[in-house]
Design goal:
five-stranded mixed sheet; alpha+beta; 2 domains; 437 residues; Rossmann fold; BirA Bifunctional Protein, domain 2; eight-stranded mixed sheet
Length: 437
């Protein structure tokens, strides 16, 4: 066949920019973190909930607020070609969890503690710790109004950092008060910034009368002085809001959890009131917030449910894993237990039931498969066994199989002598290796 008539090589298709594949061995670290979180949630009596990644666009417009960066700039929204419905890939999941709780009447029999894990989507410029598809783990306590639950969800996140061995995380807290207090503060903010219009950038001027609270987290260096001199919301709080914050602080103090009250701390969604908080680190540059949340007592009603209080947080999985890497913390799933070395392709089918016995006993086992040329050499198989990270090599040679035995060789501890097991003893041996299996 001439080169002219030969089939043209297809262009390679790659992932969308900012939406990343998570491949082994990196995926094992993700699984290890998720396993830690699931165990933590169990101890705090939180139950798993799974919601769709596509929701009605109106859910986020109503719940997050029209004048937010997420709704204005970052959502992946589209029209359903079948029915014209406006849909959006979820940019966060608190609104989705609340929608599900309302739709399924979950609070009919009392409050609920729920958690979720999954991908979120925001159309923004990808950078370290900030991606177009990113993953969050979140906890939502629905139907609880007391400040002690605010403290409990904060303590839960703090316990996770402690158990992961992450020490470089600072807790910042604040109170956004109640709507009437925020309205008074809003009026004062507008008056303050109007008297300094010449110092505001165009984005700040646009937002001034729509959502002046968002001006406080502007990163524009030229606005920092006027932001610093702006009225502080904490000065507008009534007695009940102050007491709520003081109760949270007292509980944190009793648990010896250090924190900073940051009067400039605001959140990017409109649904927050009273307690807000962030866990931040200096190790990740500008993307230093690893977990954030607060109380949102009016969101359930906004989405169509009966009025009920709520509080929760969301954690950025990529950022936490990046921090784990920066901190040198080892976070791994249990490794491979056994690599089966099989010398003759004719023995594969005879060996497979024995490997199944080990797996049923709770061990992870990798079998050396055959190739078009038969089985690799014994030397090659031992190299693969060592590279696999397995703790033991099980050698099924002709002499072993003839006598119903297997040779067990430790690959990680030279002090463990080589041994021979009867094949019918393997389950007992596995139980002694992991007594809790």
């Amino acid at each position: 066949m001439s080169e002219k008539n030969s089939p043209r090589k297809a262009d390679k298709i790659v992932a969308v920019k900012g939406m990343n594949d998570i491949m082994p061995p990196e995926s094992a670290v993700w699984e290890a973190l998720e396993a830690r979180v699931r165990e933590l949630m169990r101890r705090f009596s939180f139950e798993n909930v799974r919601t769709p990644i596509v929701e009605p666009t109106s859910l986020f417009v109503r719940g997050l607020g029209e004048v937010t960066d997420i709704v204005e700039k970052e959502m992946y929204s589209f029209e359903d070609r079948l029915n014209g419905e406006a849909l959006t890939l979820r940019p966060e999941n608190t609104a989705g969890v609340v929608r599900a709780a309302v739709e399924h009447s979950m609070l009919y029999n009392g409050p609920k503690r729920l958690y979720y894990m999954g991908p979120m989507f925001r159309h923004e410029r990808p950078q370290r710790g900030r991606y177009r598809q990113f993953h969050q783990i979140g906890a939502e306590a629905l139907g609880f109004g007391g400040a002690e639950i605010d403290a409990e969800v904060i303590l839960m996140a703090h316990m996770l950092w402690k158990e992961l061995g992450l020490a470089d995380i600072e807790l910042q807290i604040n109170s956004l008060g109640q709507p009437n207090e925020r309205n008074s503060h809003r009026a004062a903010l507008i008056q303050h910034f109007e008297s300094h219009l010449d110092l505001l950038d165009e984005e700040a001027k646009r937002r001034l009368h729509l959502n002046p609270l968002r001006l406080l987290d502007s990163k524009n260096p030229g606005m920092q002085a006027v932001i610093e001199s702006a009225p502080k919301l904490i000065d507008f709080l009534g007695d009940a809001s102050r007491e709520h914050l003081e109760t949270v602080k007292k509980i944190l103090d009793a648990h010896r959890v250090s924190y900073t009250v940051n009067p400039r701390l605001v959140r990017g969604m409109d649904y927050y009131n009273l307690t807000v908080f962030e866990f931040v680190t200096t190790k990740l540059g500008s993307q230093g917030t690893v977990c954030a949340g607060g109380r949102y007592d009016y969101l359930i009603e906004q989405i169509g449910g009966k009025p009920a209080p709520a509080v929760g947080w969301a954690m950025g999985v990529e950022r936490v894993l990046e921090l784990i890497k920066e901190s040198g913390v080892a976070l791994r799933q249990p490794g491979l237990d056994v690599f089966a070395v099989i010398t003759d392709v004719a023995n594969l089918q005879a060996v497979m039931p024995s490997l199944h016995v080990l797996r049923e006993a709770g061990l992870s086992v990798q079998m050396q498969a055959s190739t078009s040329e038969g089985m690799p050499s014994m030397k090659s198989q031992f190299k693969r066994a060592d590279a696999s990270g397995a703790r033991f090599a099980f050698v099924f040679g002709p002499d072993e199989l003839a006598s119903g035995q297997v040779t067990v060789k430790s690959l990680r501890d030279s002090n463990v002598p080589q041994a021979t097991l009867r094949i019918d003893e393997m389950a007992t041996w596995a139980a002694s290796l992991y007594p809790t299996v």
